[in-house]
Design brief:
2 domains; 5-stranded mixed beta sheet; about 270 residues; alpha/beta; 3-stranded antiparallel beta sheet; 10 strands; Nucleotidyltransferase, domain 5
Length: about 270
């Protein structure tokens, strides 16, 4: 039952972004911690339900594709896009092409470790860096400081209702406790940025995701920390597309792959 857009244009394909460790070429979701999915044939199920070609990709890869197509990565051959929010991941554009890695797990920067103390530990649902610098880590570290009696405008907030956005907003407003949490977060992210920049040598690093709206708290401090530490400091900036980057990446993927799919169908009809 092919659907239509409000203006009557036929729907030719569907692009879907999933926050997962790996999405195989056949649309199999091997592990999506946020949803508890393992080895889910999502593409097959959606195509059967929609009767349309469906294209599935890791959501942070879609961010990289969106930035490369319509955002701050236009015209660049080597691009690193870091998603900063509940999870931390990266999408890589290398030599103008999306790079997924041999096991479709390239860009899992959330599993980087900041120092040797984390060696030997086991991480499943979320990686070490995600646990420290992602939304949950920000909340946990802020709560620990609140519990120690430090003064803060967040002091009357219950743990269950405390969010990373509240902590970052408090930091932007000048709250000392929240600013200390931000500085810790900047340290963790700077280590990841420095390590990735040394390995990839990108033209640009774009920081996006839910918490990127507070980018002014992070970009300049990260740049200051990595400058002089690594051979080449890449251009580091906040995404101008915001949460639309993944949507545009899905559109780009669907357009490209739908064109390929339609071409194959026409060739079959001719033969």
């Amino acid at each position: 039952m092919p659907g239509c857009y409000p203006h009557g244009a036929p729907l030719r394909g569907v692009g879907v972004g999933i926050p997962s460790i790996a999405v195989l070429d056949d649309g199999l979701i091997t592990w999506a911690p946020s949803f508890g999915w393992r080895n889910l044939p999502l593409k097959q199920r959606l195509q059967e339900a929609l009767e349309l070609p469906v294209f599935i990709e890791n959501s942070v890869n879609l961010i990289a594709l969106g930035e490369s197509w319509r955002g701050g990565g236009q015209g660049l051959r080597n691009l690193l896009c870091i998603q900063f929010g509940d999870s931390i991941g990266a999408g890589l554009i290398l030599n103008g092409q999306l790079y997924r890695g041999s096991h479709y797990a390239a860009g899992e920067v959330g599993y980087l470790i900041p120092n040797e103390r984390y060696l030997g530990q086991t991480y499943d649902n979320y990686g070490c860096l995600e646990g420290l610098a992602g939304s949950s880590g920000i909340v946990q570290r802020a709560w620990q400081r609140l519990q120690s009696g430090q003064s803060s405008i967040l002091a009357q907030t219950e743990f269950a209702s405390l969010t990373a956005e509240q902590v970052l907003a408090a930091a932007a407003a000048g709250d000392g406790l929240a600013q200390a949490v931000v500085q810790e977060t900047v340290d963790y992210l700077s280590i990841a940025v420095a390590n990735m920049a040394c390995v990839i040598d990108p033209d640009r690093i774009i920081i996006g995701g839910d918490l990127a709206v507070f980018g002014e708290l992070f970009v300049e401090p990260i740049r200051a920390r990595v400058t002089g530490l690594i051979p080449v400091t890449p251009d580091i900036r906040v995404s101008e597309l915001g949460l639309d980057a993944a949507v545009l990446g899905a559109v780009a993927t669907a357009l490209r792959q739908t064109s390929d799919w339609l071409f194959v169908q026409r060739q079959r009809a001719i033969s």
